[in-house]
Amino acid sequence: MDVKGKTALITGGASGIGFAYAVELLRNGVAHVAILDLANSNGNEAVKKLEKEFGKGKAIFLVCDVTNAQQLEDGFAKAVKEFGGLDIVINNAGIMDDLRWELEISINYTALVRGTLLGMKHMGIDNGGKGGTIVNVSSIVGVIPLIIFPVYCGTKHAVIGLTRSFGQPYYYEKTKVRVVAICPSITNTQLMTEAEGRTVKGTPYTALPEKQRAEPLQSVENVARGLLHILRVAENGTSWLVEKEQKPAELVIPDIPVTRG
Ligand SMILES: NC(=O)c1ccc[n+]([C@@H]2O[C@H](COP(=O)([O-])OP(=O)(O)OC[C@H]3O[C@@H](n4cnc5c(N)ncnc54)[C@H](O)[C@@H]3O)[C@@H](O)[C@H]2O)c1
C-alpha cells in the first residue's frame, strides 16, 4: 500500500506508540488521521502537535472509550463522515494491568475484535467501501509466554489468532480488506514504565527471565517506522515483530505445529 493521500483511524492514538503512528503516517503523506482515545487522555494536545507540524485539518480527536461499543461505533462513523471514508484502521488501544484483568481483556481483545469488525464494515467493498488495511496491535508476547502478566499475554496471543483468521483469502475476496498484526517488543512508553505493581498477585519483576529484564526499551519512533514498512509490504494475515530498533521481521508461525510419526 502507498499511504499517500490515505485516511487513517488510530485507537489509543493520543500518546505512546499510537501517537507515534499518527506522526509517522502524516509524515509519509497520509491525508487525515482520526485519534480515538479517552476523554481524560492527551487527545486535544496530540491534535495541536500534529496540526503544528503537518497543518490544520490533518488530525481530529474523537473522545472514545473503546470498551463502550456505542462510542466505538460512533467514533468510526464520525471519522468516515469527516474524511469521506477510511483506508487504514489501527486497533492500538491497550493496557498492561493484570490486577484489572477483566478490563484488560475488554480493551486489548474485545474492543479490538469490535474495531476489526467495524473496519471491515466501513472499508469492505461488500458494504460500499473501497478496501483497506486493518493493523491489529499485538506484541512479542503474542507468541512467547510472559510470567508476570499472563492475562496480558493471553490477550496478545488472541490478537494474532484473530488476525490470521480474518486474514484468510475467504474474507479478503469479499471485502478487499487486508488484516495484519504488529508485534512490538518492549518499547519506551507509560505502559512499560508504569507496569511494575500491576502484575498478577504482585509478582515481582525479578520473576522475569534475566534476558527479558535486561533488554533495553526501544523507541516509539522505531515501532512507527515499522508500521509504515508493514503497511507497504505485508501480505494479508501476516504478523510482524518490531524489536531492538530494527526493521520489522515477519513472524513465521507454522500452520500445523505438530507432526506425529
Ligand atoms: N510499550 C510496549 O512495550 C508495548 C509492547 C508491545 C505492544 N504494546 C501495545 O501497544 C499498544 C500501545 O501501547 P503503549 O505502550 O503506547 O501504551 P500507552 O499506555 O503509552 O498508550 C495507550 C493509549 O491507549 C489509550 N487507552 C487506554 N485505554 C483506553 C480505552 N479504554 N479507550 C480508548 N483509549 C484507551 C490511552 O489513553 C493511551 O493514549 C498497546 O496495545 C500495547 O499493548 C506495547
From TrEMBL:
Gene transcribed to yield this protein: LOC107221452
Pfam families registered for this protein in UniProt: adh_short
Catalytic activity: resolvin D2 + NAD(+) = 7-oxoresolvin D2 + NADH + H(+); (15S)-hydroxy-(5Z,8Z,11Z,13E)-eicosatetraenoate + NAD(+) = 15-oxo-(5Z,8Z,11Z,13E)-eicosatetraenoate + NADH + H(+); 15-oxo-(5S,6R)-dihydroxy-(7E,9E,11Z)-eicosatrienoate + NADH + H(+) = (5S,6R,15S)-trihydroxy-(7E,9E,11Z)-eicosatrienoate + NAD(+); 14-hydroxy-(4Z,7Z,10Z,12E,16Z,19Z)-docosahexaenoate + NAD(+) = 14-oxo-(4Z,7Z,10Z,12E,16Z,19Z)-docosahexaenoate + NADH + H(+)
Keywords: Oxidoreductase
This enzyme's EC code(s): 1.1.1.141, 1.1.1.232
Protein family according to the UniProt entry: Belongs to the short-chain dehydrogenases/reductases (SDR) family.
PANTHER family: 15-HYDROXYPROSTAGLANDIN DEHYDROGENASE [NAD(+)] (PTHR44229:SF4)
InterPro entries in alphabetical order: NAD(P)-bd_dom_sf, Sc_DH/Rdtase_CS, SDR_fam
CDD domains associated with the record: ADH_SDR_c_like
UniProt KW Nucleotide-binding keyword: no
Function: Catalyzes the NAD-dependent dehydrogenation (oxidation) of a broad array of hydroxylated polyunsaturated fatty acids (mainly eicosanoids and docosanoids, including prostaglandins, lipoxins and resolvins), yielding their corresponding keto (oxo) metabolites. Decreases the levels of the pro-proliferative prostaglandins such as prostaglandin E2 (whose activity is increased in cancer because of an increase in the expression of cyclooxygenase 2) and generates oxo-fatty acid products that can profoundly influence cell function by abrogating pro-inflammatory cytokine expression.
Protein name: 15-hydroxyprostaglandin dehydrogenase [NAD(+)]
